[in-house]
Structures are given as structure tokens and as C-alpha cells.
Amino acid sequence: MKKTGSQIFVECLKMEGVDTIFCYPGGATLNITDVLSQSPEIKQIVVRHEQGAVHASDGYARATGKVGVCLVTSGPGATNTVTGIATAYMDSIPIVVFTCQVTTMLIGNDAFQEADIVGITRPCTKHNYLVKDVKDLARIIKEAFYLARSGRPGPILVDIPKDVSAQVCDFKYPEKVFIRSYQPTYVGHAGQIKRAVKLILSSKRPILYTGGGIISSGASQELIKLAEKLSLPVTNTLMGLGGFPGNHKQFLGMLGMHGTYAANMAITNSDAIIAIGARFDDRATGNTDAFAPHAQIIHVDIDPTSISKSIKVHIPIVGDSKNVIKKMLEFIDDEKDSIKDYKEGIKDWLEQIEKWKKQYPLTYSKGDRLKPQYVIERIYALTKGDAIISTEVGQNQMWTAQFYKFLKPRTILTSGGLGTMGYGFPAAIGAQVAFPDRLVIDIAGDGSIQMNIQELATAVQFNLPVKVVILNNGFLGMVRQWQELFYGKRYTWTHMNFAPDFVKLAQAYNAVGYRIEKEEEVDKILKEAFANKRPTFIDVPVDPEEGVYPMVPAGAALRDMLLV
Amino acid sequence: MRHIISVLVENEFGVLSRVAGLFSGRGFNIESLCVAETLDPTISSMTIVTSGNDTIIEQILKQLNKLINVIKVTDFREMDYVSREMVLVKVNAEEKKREEVLRMVEIFRGKIIDVSPKTYTLLITGDEDKIKAFLELLKPIGIKELVRTGPVAIARGEKVIKIKEKQSKGGEDG
Ligand SMILES: Cc1ncc(C[n+]2csc(CCOP(=O)(O)OP(=O)(O)O)c2C)c(N)n1
User: Fold this and answer.
1) B42: nearest CA in chain A?
2) How far apart are CA A407 and CA A220, in angstroms?
């Protein structure tokens, strides 16, 4: 059947099961926009800034596990997506970003609103395309969705010139994808997996160190089985939170720069690290020379480039986390005889870990001012860990990782790799669109929230009752903390001498605003805010100079933590 | 350590910049890069000369493989290979020097491909050592300009670098 490029575009989205797109119009989108106006089965959330559209589709993807989709115009519309794309790329989030482009004839002419977005985003996409001929459009869209969600997921950008969206051709959605140069390895090498199991069973001080790969491969249940079967202590990265229940007795908390004492000591002293779907990022490892000096390391990852990149690995296993753990469990069942000895052998280790946990648990001291950690503890208590939590970046993010117990996968949306301030609010909006009836909370700082605050209009327009808890310390707190520790308390640029009245601001947008002044009000106001069905800002003035601890200074060894 | 790497890629626009961007973005070094179509016109072959310790080379190979348009990556260090490079050199060739240049071209089995009253333009092909030796000898005579292709390489004997059967079937949507 003959269709225009725009019709083909919309048909392809339907074939891919897309139910929502986050979008912003411009001259170059008009052909597509017009066709979408007759496609009510695709929810169209019009944002207020293209960066918001990308973060929202990213939040949608993290919360659902499906591919997030957004569509923007050429030139400035396209360049506004770059931070969002880089954010998704660093965290391996499957999204497809459609940018529109000037007509094919004008490409390369410095035409009005032309930007070489394929060139600009080459290093921060998994792959990207410029569609030069309408005949390629359906195939490219099919490939884009396949690439986004398969292997190590990531953002794909498809640039569609305006004339291509108007041209007509025969439409048939390809049934299969044919990319001869792309074959992710899902099944791990059986021999390597067997060696790994043998290594674990002969170890005395083993530990599981897991990351976002557990979430993206849906391996949480398998991970719990593995950990329980072998009584393995578990630590994870920021991206791995929720992959293992935060209230499980074998859980040590997050490792790394703001990880727990127990997790960092356990990693440092272990003799066998089982790393699954984590990439030994510098925020997790600290100084690599002093990282786990006595450990044999098993590393399971779907992306071979992650293996032995920063830390030399002894048993590399390329494969999908879920597949590999399943296989491990099978092999462990064959080793019944050695399990008894193994469990006997790790007793002292588990005791030692319990001691570390008790010695320096995550804590904070109460004072005259309201403490941000307390507010997060209460959010956890009131939601029973059942909410979807997004964060901004900085102290708010680290306190959330420390004091909110994530019980299930896909309940934390946070910019781990790029650390993008302004991510949390639009990401929460994206998650709320996917789950209109769930409680979605952005835990924010007063700095970060102002980076995409314009999306409050989107939330109000589309009745998305996102809750934003602003831990308002009047500072760009995380940077201030570094100035406090390493720059003689010279708080240059980080003191926010002016901030808007967030309660009035919310009201000006026809959203709801609250302010919490005292500890006694915390529960009452949070409950009220969580129960109302409208977008809500909750401004919480907190102790301005509270810090995030423990802390491993940049470049130091994990064992050298500042504890208070 | 110096490595010659062969990269088979889809013969499409933009692939070269993906490969070049990978090297610059990750701080890998490119000594030379040579690209052209292969027997199969849908595939181009790139020969890249790079250097680095084992960890860096391992990352280069893996990162190249990760690019969606890259079909196959081969490090020639893992096999016997022959490599050749072509060089065009413009040298001073006035009066007495003409003789000397001619003699050297003959010894190195090069060619004179252009002549002017004051210069000769020479063509020479060979492996790294031969070209190095030749250029050293020319230096005192006076090299005015030099262009090089960078080496291309091929496996010795019957071994052929080709894409695997599995690879030509392509990935399927799972
Ligand atoms: C887009 C962007 N710009 C700058 C930074 C650097 N940065 C990291 S944390 C931080 C402070 C964040 O302040 P705020 O949102 O108030 O959170 P707090 O640390 O006070 O909780 C800054 C500026 C960043 N991560 N992202």
C-alpha cells in the first residue's frame, strides 16, 4: 500500500507497540505532527523543552523496560536533545529519538534550522541514522527499535528530513531485522561459567557486586536465588539499586564513593568478586590500584568492552546476566558435595561483614535543623518502598541511594553515569505517564529542580500527579561539600543567594505547593501531598551544611573512607 | 607496540567518521588509515596502524567491534602477514644529483613518475623497513615533499580474512 513518509512513521510506531511519545513541534515536524493528530492510540505528551522530552522518554523506558520514544524538530530542537541522549547512553537506556531535518536538498547548506545532529550525536548514541530516502524509512525504524533494546541497550537517533516525511512509497513493515555486523552474545561460555562456579565454591571471602545489567536483563529473581543459595553478601552500584532487595539481610548497601562502610570493606578484603552487569566505574572502584587487591574477579557483562577496561578480570564471561546466572545455578546444583565445605569456609567472612555493618551503619545526627536524610527515611516508611523514585543529581541523589530502600527493579530513576542535574523531574513525568496510578516522586535539590522546572506545565497540562520533594539547602550542596572538604570552605558559586518561593511557583503553575518547616510536620504533609491527585511541589528547607557520608575522596582507595 | 588492524565495514556514508571518532574520542592513536572498497562492493576494508600497550589494543579491538557498522576486526599480530606501503617523494635533482637519485631508485626498485628541470618525483613501494631505509638515504639529497599511503596488509599463505557464515546471516529480532 502507498503511504507518505509520515504515515509510514506512524504505522511503524504502532507496529512496534509504541503507546506514548514525548514531543515538541517545529516547522520540520509538521508533516508527521499532522498525521499523529489522527492517531489517538499514541499518547502524545507535549513537553516544554526538548531536553525534557528525552529525559521523559528515558524515565518511561527505565520504569517500564520498554523502549522510550520522543520526536522533536530540526536545528535547535535537535541540539536540545543532546544532554538527554548522553544521559541515556551512559546508563544504557533504550530510547529512540526522532529528530526532523531540513529537506534533503538543503542539507549541508547551512539552511535555516539545520544542524548536523547525526554528526553531533555520533559519540553519544549506540547508533544513529539519517534517512535519505523514504524507501529506507520502515527498515531504519525497525532497526532502530531492535538496536535500542537488544544487546547492551542504548539510545538510537533517527534523523528524518522534511521531504522524506512527505514522499510517497509502498509500505510494508519488515518482519525481520537484518544487520550482519551486529550480533550480541546472550549465552555465556559454558566452560567459563563452570570455572566461575568452581572459583566461587573454593573462595573464602566471596561477594556479589552487581549493576544496571541486572535491571536491564530482568535478572533480579535469579540474582536473589544465586545470593541465597550460596549465602553471598551483595553490594551494588547506583544503577543496580532495586536489583536486589534493599531490605534483604545479605544486602550491604551501595559501594563506592558514597557507599557503605561494610560494602567498601567487603570489596577491599574479598578473595572472589562476582561482578554481574556492572562496569567498574571510577565512582564505584575508587583508586583502581588499591581495588580489591586479594580478589579473583569474575565479570559477567553483555558488552565485551566493559570487561578488563579499568580492572583486570580473571574470568570474563560475555553474555546476558539473566542467562548466565541461570546457568550458574544449574552448575551449582551439580556441585552439591562441595557446597557444605564452602559454607563452612565462609562463616568467618560473613561474621566479619556483620561486624562491619554494626560498626559503621549509615547514620546521621539530628540537630536544630531538619535533616534531609530523615525526610528520605520517612518517604520510604510512608511509601513502604512501593513508589517509583527519581532523583536529581548531587547530595539529594546520594542520600536517596543511601536512605531509601529500593525493594524492586525499575523503582529508581537516576542519572548515574552522566550525573545530569535536571534529569529527575522530566524522568518522573515519563514514568507517571506509563503508570498513571502509581506514586512517582522526584527527590530533588533546589539547584537541580531549576534546570527543568518548566516541565511543571507539562505535568499540569497532562494531569500527571508527580510529587517533587525539594531538599532545599540553599546550596549546590554536593559541590559545596567538596569546597568544604578540599577548598577551605570557600563556597564560591555554590551559595544560591536567590531562589524562588517554590510553593508560590507551584501555585502559579496551578499545581499544589507545600512547605515543611519542622520534623513534626514531615509525616502529615507528605501523606497529604502523596494522597492528592495533582502535581505537587514540597519545599523542605533542610540543614544547609549537611554532608553525604561516608565519602571516599576522588582518587583514594575504597578503604580510606571519611566516615562522618 | 605497533599493530596493524584490518577492519571490514559496511560501505556506507558516515562509517569512516564513526571509526575516526572512536579513536579521537577515546584517546587512541592512529598512525595511518587506509580505506577502500573490497571485492564485495557492499564492504570496505580499512587498514589502521595504531600503537599502545596490550590493554589499549584490546580496548581498540573491542570498541571497533562494538560499532554497529563494523563487520569484522582482525589484528595482524595474531597471524603471519605481509604489508606494503606506497610513497611518493619529490626530491631535489639538479645536475650531479640526478645520477645518484637514479641509482638509488634502481636499487630500491622504485620508479620515476614525473620529472622537472630541478626535481624528480619518485614512487616506491615496500614494507616498513625498506621505506625507512630509502627515505634515510634520500634525506641528504633533499626531500622537498613526501606523501604516503600508510600500509595495507594481507595474511600470508592461503588464509583469507572473510566474514563468517553466521555473520552474513545477520541478527534476528528477538
Ligand atoms: C547539568 C549539570 N551541571 C553541573 C553539574 C555539577 N554538579 C553536580 S552536583 C551539583 C549540585 C547540585 O545541587 P542541588 O541540585 O541543589 O543538589 P544538592 O547537592 O544540594 O542536594 C552540581 C552543580 C551537574 N552534575 N550537572
Assistant:
1) A180
2) 10
